[in-house]
Amino acid sequence: MRRPVTVALAAALFASVLTTMSGAAELSPADFVDPLVGSAGDGNTYPGATAPFGMLAWSPTSTRGDQTSTGAANGYQYDTTRIRGFSLTHVNGAGCNPGAAGDVPILPFAGDVTSSPTADTADTVYASNFSHADEAATAGRYRLGLANGVTTDAAATERTAIATLTYPQDKPAALLFRTSNSLNGSEDAETHIDAKNREITGSVLTGAFCGRRANGGVNNRKSYYRLYFTAQFDRPVTGTGTWKDATLQPGGTDQTGGEGYATGKDRAGRGSGGYVTFAPGSEVTMRIGVSYVSLEGAERNVRAEQPEKSTVNTVAEKTGKAWNAELDRVRVSGGTANQRIVFTTALYHSLQQPSLVSDVDGRYLGMDRQVHRVERGQDAQYSNFSGWDQYRAQVQLLALLEPRVAGNFAQSLYNYAKQNDGVWDRWVHVNGATHVMTGDPSAATLATFYAMGVRNFDYRGAFDSLYKQATVPRPEGLQDGGCPGQCVGQRPNLAQYLTSHYAPHDVCHCWGGAAETLEDSVADFAIGHFAELLGRTREAAELHARGAYWRNVFNPETGYMQARNVDGSWVTPFDPASDRGFAQGSAAAYTWMVPQDVSGLAVAMGGKAAAITRLDGFFHDSSGNWQLKGGGPLKYDPTNEPDIHAPWLYNELGQPWKTQETVRQLVNSVYTTGPSGLPGNDDLGTMSAWYVFAALGIYPRTPGTGELLLSSPLFPGAVIRPAGGAPIRITTSGSGKYVQDVRRGSKPQRDWKVDASFLRGGSLDFRLSEAPTTWGS
């Protein structure tokens, strides 16, 4: 099992050799994926096995000596080399620790089970160290050799996994199901062992996404889903046992009990699970399936996705083909091996979500906690919607590459809203309305899908519902439950907003009045464009006017966005480096968050020249050196969403060459190979999607539209093959990072943007220059 380099790194070294060999066979796209990228620092990715848009993800839950916590958000941190199990569900790159899911950690244990694993609160006994030299992660497969002597090799389908566990000859062989030990805890859990039929089944009732956050997390310490699982073994079970809290029951076969949602000593020592034993030296193959509906659903998923003769190799091969099909939707040519790894891994992370939540029979758990079936014409129900993050880049990439999945996702969000009394929650985890972040990202997301040509959802019904949410106040909009980070009102204090034309900070019942105003302005512009495309002229005019409400929180005296009180006064004292009135960002960062009216923002700042000078200072220090990461709250922050579009603003300000050099600098310096390769939380593929667009030389101009901004592509060639659509080809000639000229098809492209018709197929041919040019200015 010992491997001196990861498979992905080996692929990189091999690829670098291939670049010197004319006529050599090409590696597949999946060979350039390194799932460990982003697993160190604050990337919060996980390296385990999963399929595109998969429900199940087999990946480690790490420990630093606290059974009620983990090494980092979402279960895995590269510098934490001790695990207490392999969990079945994960979320890619969520920011709050411990994040979400991490359900049913399963630990291969080489030794006798002599005490309750839950009583081992410091994970000193029932956990194992490992070395990264014994770790290999590829798209759809994950292998890890544990220091306890057990080697593991697992592959995943959409709703199932198969794992081969090889135990040492000289030690007892056990397999622990820590059923209650989800990342955030659990309300209840159940474990049932059928030794005769070589099977363990059970479920965990859990949820609590971001439930530990100081800012509003207490509001989310609740359950909203039950995950069912079935695990079947190909070797005889020689012994069984269960535990609850500190009590071990050797020979036991049934147990229940949850942990609660506290942490540390307030939760330690609580919980339940079960274990089976095998003959020493056994090589055990386990087939496991999950469902959010029922145990029968989990069993049905296994039968549908894993033929009886499945092996880890056959499942890994099939899922590898599925990943290659998705990754081949953007095939780049040229570039270095490292650039190919960064790009393809970013594409891989972008396409891990949305996540399937419906079973093979189309049933899923609704937001009303009832079982539903997908709508007529809907292929599947999807979830895990990090709306505040994703509406800025990830949903656009999804709509471009997988429009049918995007439409299914749009219908899924609409289904949840109908089950939630018409409320579109801004951060949906499985079937849970978590209320995390601010604004109305569902409006921007569905408007974007429609503008980009997605049609396989009830777009008229969805528009009517989104319009109602944006125009009809609800009582929870006057509540402070969950505030400031998880306010229950999705359009907080909407009546006052419609009166004041901004969110008054002192009565907004939101995270921050200025941030709420900016977010709602973007959302209103987006669904205003949605209305326009649907021929709803009255609503379009109304919402477009509201898209300009950002002006009401721009203070001409300070030159920054600034929160206001209900009486019209500015919230003071004011500091552009402060987050007062904002959400996870400073006034300096949020001031640029007007993608729907960049020219208007420039006028407010004193004209385009003044705006350019300020934007220059946003990306550079006082000496003119790049300041693209770690520069503090007055500078650009590539690790969070409010300002990630800022490098592209130079286009509309009349100096496109500065977009080209800034984007290229970010692509070359902030995103890298290796575990620290992401600048910050991947936020369900958002940061990765940003990179994919940037490397292609295109980027979504404004949420709710299908327009793309242009920059200089990183690779000499790229072919985008949308599912069911015509190809889009992007080529470059010449060298450098500046655009000399562009041709769209056979005609010169003199503008710095292309309209939505480009999404239906075509070509862009860039000629690059070593020096800045006036193209597009």
As a percent range, the share of helical residues equals: 25-40%
The CATH class designation of the largest domain is Alpha Beta
**Biggest sheet, in brief?**
12 strands, antiparallel
Please count the helical segments.
Answer: 18
- Span of the ends, CA to CA: 57 Å
| Poorly predicted runs | 1-24
Radius of gyration: 26 Å
Task: Estimate nothing, just give the exact number of structural domains.
Answer: 2
**Residue-averaged pLDDT, rounded?**
95
- The CATH architecture designation of the largest domain is 2-Layer Sandwich
- What is the multimeric organization of the chains shown? single chain
Class per helix and strand makeup: alpha+beta
For the secondary structure, the number of strands is 35
Q: Report the portion of residues in β strands.
A: 15-25%
Return the CATH topology of the largest domain: GH92 mannosidase fold
CATH superfamily of the largest domain: GH92 mannosidase domain
Strand order of the largest sheet: 1-2-3-5-6-7-8-17-12-11-10-15
Overall 3D form:
globular
